[in-house]
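Input sequence (202 aa), recorded before submission:
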Amino acid sequence: MDWLIAFGHNHELLVYGVAFLMMFLEGDVSLLLFGALSRGRYLSFSTLFFIAFVATLIHDMIFWRLGEWLAKREKKKYFYFDLDKFAGFMERYRPFAGLVVVFSKFAWNFNRIILISTGYVKIPLKKVMRYSFITALLWPSLYMSIGYMFADQTNIFKQRLEVIALGVAGILILLMVFERYIRKIVDKIFSAKLNGGTGEHK
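Predicted structure, token format:
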């Protein structure tokens, strides 16, 4: 780990640039790592949080635009996702679209297709970004705090590499279980509201 720490101190701007790009590749893992690195005082917590905040907003705007682009070209597939099915899902939950965007960030591998769906069914970008702003505050705060506390409790940077790997893997498994549970709860809540006749489709 010493060489990595030395590299970070000598090339701090480059490291922050890489951190920004990491947010577009695997946000959950990146945020955990950011929190752990800031606990070791190798990087600034506030700077990493700001990077994560900005990257989240840009990420959400890009995928909304992608959904709009796919709709204009009447595309029916996004990789292996059936866009008609997800568009139907988003139309069904249109009264709660903002909340779906927020909660989807905590549902593993679900957020991007939700953002694409909002653009696909033409939910206004301003509405989506209002809730993305909330997400950009909550999501990094939670995951960076988990990474920070994990590093604090385990003194992770003084452990052997295999111990670190097992610890990170354990946290990721717990987060995946948590996010699957959140997805089920959200689905039940929104279904109950819709069945009860609350909200109007616009």
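Checked by second reader. The first strand starts at residue 77 and ends at 78.
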